């Protein structure tokens, strides 16, 4: 179990948003935190502290007038910490290599693979072929519906028909290096982790998984450790003091 930092970029700024509040219409979202510092500042900090495998996420769609500003921030972060950060946001087989060439260690992908509500296996094969499976992270972030977890896409706005299960993770493992999973219903709300989701993910042996969502205190982090058995990596966003919260970065960076 180790801490994976994050740098979320929206409308050209490093931000922390309430999960599920992001809307493509007018690029709106409910904000928890807006940084006065650029993404490169955080990248250099994570490099100094030896934290690898954090993710930079461009939260505006490629069609947004803000996307270019998002990319400029992301490119600066990748240049500041080459090989130390993953990047997600509009990644596909055609542009994945350009992100790697810009300094990303991995590309983080959702919508390109989970298109039209289904797993697009051909797209997954193309992506793995473009950069190698060892550089692919699948974001299988999910929301609960009818008592089950379903993968969501398009900045968590759309439910797919794909239920998150141990079986689907094993199938997709052939095409990626690891998984990133946000519990979207608790993301950015500092309301506690999704116990059932953490338990589900912890039961998948031999598959590297990073969990995000609801870790709002050191006590909650310890609870996450107990429930997960220390088998999952984790990230903390809005609750981290770097982003306006109360969880001390200086403590969790050593986890």
UniProtKB/TrEMBL annotation:
<comment type="pathway">
    <text>Amino-acid biosynthesis.</text>
</comment>
<dbReference type="Pfam" id="PF00977">
    <property type="entry name" value="His_biosynth"/>
</dbReference>
<keyword id="KW-0028">Amino-acid biosynthesis</keyword>
<dbReference type="InterPro" id="IPR011060">
    <property type="entry name" value="RibuloseP-bd_barrel"/>
</dbReference>
<dbReference type="InterPro" id="IPR013785">
    <property type="entry name" value="Aldolase_TIM"/>
</dbReference>
<dbReference type="GO" id="GO:0005737">
    <property type="term" value="C:cytoplasm"/>
</dbReference>
<protein>
    <submittedName>
        <fullName>Phosphoribosylformimino-5-aminoimidazole carboxamide ribotide isomerase</fullName>
    </submittedName>
</protein>
<dbReference type="GO" id="GO:0000105">
    <property type="term" value="P:L-histidine biosynthetic process"/>
</dbReference>
<comment type="similarity">
    <text>Belongs to the HisA/HisF family.</text>
</comment>
<keyword id="KW-0413">Isomerase</keyword>
<dbReference type="GO" id="GO:0000162">
    <property type="term" value="P:L-tryptophan biosynthetic process"/>
</dbReference>
<dbReference type="InterPro" id="IPR006062">
    <property type="entry name" value="His_biosynth"/>
</dbReference>
<dbReference type="InterPro" id="IPR011858">
    <property type="entry name" value="His6/HISN3"/>
</dbReference>
<keyword id="KW-0368">Histidine biosynthesis</keyword>
<dbReference type="InterPro" id="IPR044524">
    <property type="entry name" value="Isoase_HisA-like"/>
</dbReference>
<dbReference type="GO" id="GO:0003949">
    <property type="term" value="F:1-(5-phosphoribosyl)-5-[(5-phosphoribosylamino)methylideneamino]imidazole-4-carboxamide isomerase activity"/>
</dbReference>
